[in-house]
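Exercise (ungraded).
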Amino acid sequence: MKYVVGFFRFWYDFVVGDDWRVAAGLSVAFGMSALLAHHGVPAWWFLPPAAIGLLGASLWREVRHSSR
Amino acid sequence: MLASVATGSKAASVGGVFLIVSAFLASAVEMVEALTIVLAVGVTRGWRSTLIGVGTATLALAVVVAALGPALTLIPISVLRLVVGALLLVFGLQWLRKAILRAGGFKSLHDEEAIFARERAEAAEARVEEVAGLDWYAFVLAFKGVFLEGLEVAFIVITFGSAQGSIPLAALGAAGAIVIVGTAGVLVRRPLSRVPENTMKFGVGAMLTTFGIFWGGEGTGVSWPGGDAAILVVLGFVVLSALGLVRLLRWQRERVEAVTAVPVGVEP
């Protein structure tokens, strides 16, 4: 059991990393992008600011935590 | 017709250069970190078991690339680009996040000399346990150091290479870094503390994020204006935004330190 937990923990840390909210936010952003494209809306402008916004939010949480 | 073929091949060569540079830089950063561990273990515990650990890890990584690489080429290109784009974007944002926190002063820079000293002290304290004629501690530590640091690079080589349609080109970039960093390590026999690791990490993070956005976008059905040339525009946007975030973090750190007169953050 210990090894199974260790295995999944390793892959979680490897893929998701320090902030799970970034990975979760990216899933939502990809979904939104697909939705826009599916409805024929030009969606090329959506992902770049979404990715940078998620990065900025993650950094902001870390900075606030470190500044306390 | 000829003009479009020329534009297409130019875009493909730009993609190829990005591919080699990204694989090279990512490998170099991870190799510098692995080299520090290997040197500390080898100097303290002897080289035989350490080098066998390094060789076994390298073989294991080669198996991962050889097994997953061809498997990925069987996936339809649109699905592949979505999966690869998402993975590269997650990796890229992780690399950028760490690099920005370090550049902004909220995380200490990677100090290879300090890590070397710590690993040496731990290796000297651990008792000798022989398994199959090997110093097990040295073997396991060298194996883990190379395999774990190399796994992310293997993923970058596989995903980046398969989405760009050239795993060998990505492997070439990674192999170049392994040869250069390995040779430098053998020559100086000290951790490569002068390598600008954070700048390289920032560069790799920006490139992975850019390709993650581009391919992930294509995978969700986005049509990029200007085709592959949009990669350069996205890269410019990502780099400028990331540099802006570094400035913002530095400004915030100075502001907090001015108010509290206490240094902020700086944890490894």
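Further reading is listed at the end of the chapter. For now, observe: Chain B touches chain A through 42 residues (CB under 8 Å). Confidence is low (pLDDT under 50) at residues 1-8 of chain B.
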